Amino acid sequence: MLTFSQLASITHGSVLQFVHDLPVQHLLTDSRKLAQPASTLFFAIKGAFNDGHDYVSALYARGVRQFIVEQVVEIPGVKSGENFKYSFPEANFLLAENSLTALQEIAAFHRGEFLLPVMAITGSNGKTIVKEWLAQLLSPDEKVVKSPRSYNSQIGVPLSVWQINANHTFGIFEAGISMVSEMEKLARIIRPTLGIFTNVGTAHDEGFENSVQKIEEKLLLFKDVKLLFYSSDEKLLDEAVKREGIKSFTWGHRPDADLQILSQQISGAKTSILYKFEGNENQISIPFTDPASVQNTLHCLAVLVWRGMASETMQQRFDKLLPVAMRLEMKEAINNCYLIDDTYNNDLAGLSTALDLLVHQKRHQQKTVILSDLLESGLNEETLYSEVAAALKNRGVDRLIGIGKVISRHRLKFSMKAEFYTNTADFLQHFQSDSFHNETILVKGARVFEFEKIVALFGKKVHGTVLEVNLNALVHNLNFYRSKLQPETKIMVMVKAFAYGSGSYEIANILQFHRVDYLAVAYTDEGVLLRENGISLPIMVMNPSADSFAQLLRYHLEPEIYSLSQLRSFLTFIHTDSAPAYHIHLKLDTGMHRLGFTKPDFEELFTLLQTEPRVQVASIFSHLAGADEALHNDFSKQQITSFREMAAEIESKIGYSVTKHILNSAGIVRFPEHHLDMVRLGIGLYGVEATGTEQDALQNVGTLKTTISQIKHIQQGDTVGYSRRGLAETDLEIATLAIGYADGYDRRFGNGNGEVLINGQTAPIIGNVCMDMCMVNVTGLQVSEGDEVVVFGQELPITKLAAKINTIPYELLTNVSPRVKRVFYSE
Ligand SMILES: *Cc1c(COP(=O)(O)O)cnc(C)c1O
């Protein structure tokens, strides 16, 4: 294992402080993912939204002793230059010009220590799937090391390559780029001997002048490979590869392809492919039919054929090929438990990311992991299960349920409370629901273990309507708004009304993980709920009633103060309380005429504030009445001007400057020059761009789904539902859906105003919407009982639905009733 001083000699950095040499086993770039402090080297990297240097102190406190930094870390109250000796006496520090470059240099050095063949994969789509499938197909013959999930960035690639060890016989790594000049760096780290270029799509075109430039940049990855696999059906790509003189192995429909596809035939769930290689025709059947999966499989086929694998062996392995599950779901479970269901690969890297996520679920103290045997090809059993045991211990897992013969054999390695079962059936047989209470449970099993059966046991049974919340999309939207802000502008996220219907605790938790500055809720009890579920961010309560002040203070919530009478009752309340300080937020009314102080209140406001020095104004804010509509621009600007004036007057009177904010989601987009110290993000996070000008930049977050309970034929002249409003003008086929106005499906959608999607087909509502159900016309559509129905989502945007019934997306989102189960997922 390399030590700090060896690594220091590899990078272009200078040693700032050296205490004693330590082994480096784990490279860390994200302080939230710390697992094994003693053998970790932390890289303080400056990112778009975060600066790694801000976390050095916290990591030191948690036991990290090796750091690569770009600057001296300033500690308040300690003289510059003296910092290291006094604040971090036991740590080694290396000063690098660029910490990310140092990480890449170290990974490149590590790669150079091994001689194994390495396949690099790039292209617009399918990188992760081709990587996972190729690993599945090769793994009986090779010990494969590969990128975890889609770790393909400037940081992800070095971390992936760092996993290589002497036991591996084949490497497969993804490389993804979004700008010119990134690929050369990745090529130096991966140093591939083989390559696959999956396809040329349109993703990330912004970073490039045109498709040809994008292709040429990506081809830099393959400058030195022995062979590049790609489809010669991609004309631009084919021309570019030939121009660059890269040796290749092509597949495609043209006769000059090395592996020529003669025909493709779908039957049932399989596609049969007739191909010709070196003059011989051959047939293979693959367990997929959609064009993307077929393309991904053909890349793998080309590699296997080139390796000379016997066609029988190939067929056996293709038969066993499994779809790549990238999905991780979180949901409520029985006995107030919370379930994390991760279907991604159960190897060490996959386990490690799942454990990171478990650690960041702050809702319950108690953490349980249900884990099957691991699929890991590069380590012997002893080492593997020692590492698994260490990973669980370091993440503070309280209880392990190990399922499988291999993990059971290594039971003595696990120091936490643990029980073992030889297989899933054995566990199911002994399952007792009352041995699980108030805990977060991570379920992580290799596919053959069929852990979906375990997940089903824990699931709370509800009717078939769910709101699926896409956490990747939510983070994407957060980052879209962040990219509009100056780095010093803070961000408060509105999670009032159950986070706009999406689910308050989970949303707050992911916002906390992504380090927003503030949260805001409407009422005290909403804030209390967040605190009870482990949310520690500052929280502003917009409308705290006087009778909730005790709760407010007990849970460290910060009140919005909007009137003199409210301020007086707050002051009276704290008179007998002994806290040293109280943070309040002053709301000014600049034209919305809802809540807030106006100028005439000022004199008394200042007098009252002077009576209680313990009360500190944390922020001053106001709210725009018409930020979403251009027609109100003049009015909005007037509001902003009077806000600035009023805030300045308050600051001069109270004698200190405070955080000022006025913009909501629409305002952030519309008034970039008035972001001030903080902005308040609401609906945009949930996927609706309220000015309508940048909707395409956001991703859909919530998808409301239900199911078909029954299908029936009715005759011309029959009527459907209450008040006989749905008249069949001809014979019809109708479907009854398990959603009604009590679930939040607005009654105004009735009688043809609304529609749903079933298997991609549009079905209009017929008759009135009932309390728990509604009926749709499915005449002529391909539908069956039990089919999934999309009520709103990507293909049926709530902006459109809202317009149909003359309301706004906010109302549709917040109307989804609490009885609808929320499922959170990421990919
Ligand atoms: C709800 C709310 C917001 C967020 O508004 P969006 O239009 O959802 O971005 C901002 N400020 C205040 C005071 C609010 O009540």
UniProtKB/TrEMBL annotation:
It comes from Adhaeribacter terrigena. One of its GO terms (molecular function) is ligase activity. Substrate binds at residues 594, 771. It catalyses: L-alanine = D-alanine. SMART domains: Ala_racemase_C (SM01005). The active site is at residues 496, 722. Catalyzes the interconversion of L-alanine and D-alanine. May also act on other amino acids. It comes from the Bacteria. Its EC number is 5.1.1.1. Pfam families: Ala_racemase_C, Ala_racemase_N, Mur_ligase_M. The keyword ATP-binding applies. PANTHER family: UDP-N-ACETYLMURAMOYL-TRIPEPTIDE--D-ALANYL-D-ALANINE LIGASE. InterPro entries: Ala_racemase (IPR000821), Ala_racemase/Decarboxylase_C (IPR009006), Ala_racemase_C (IPR011079), Ala_racemase_N (IPR001608), Mur-like_cat_sf (IPR036565), Mur_ligase_C_dom_sf (IPR036615), Mur_ligase_cen (IPR013221), MurCDEF_CellWall_CoF430Synth (IPR051046). Its cofactor is pyridoxal 5'-phosphate. Keywords: ATP-binding, Isomerase, Ligase, Nucleotide-binding, Pyridoxal phosphate. This is Alanine racemase. Residues 701-825 form the Alanine racemase C-terminal domain. It is an enzyme of class 5 (isomerase). Belongs to the alanine racemase family. The keyword Isomerase applies. The modification N6-(pyridoxal phosphate)lysine is found at residue 496. Pathway: Amino-acid biosynthesis; D-alanine biosynthesis; D-alanine from L-alanine: step 1/1.
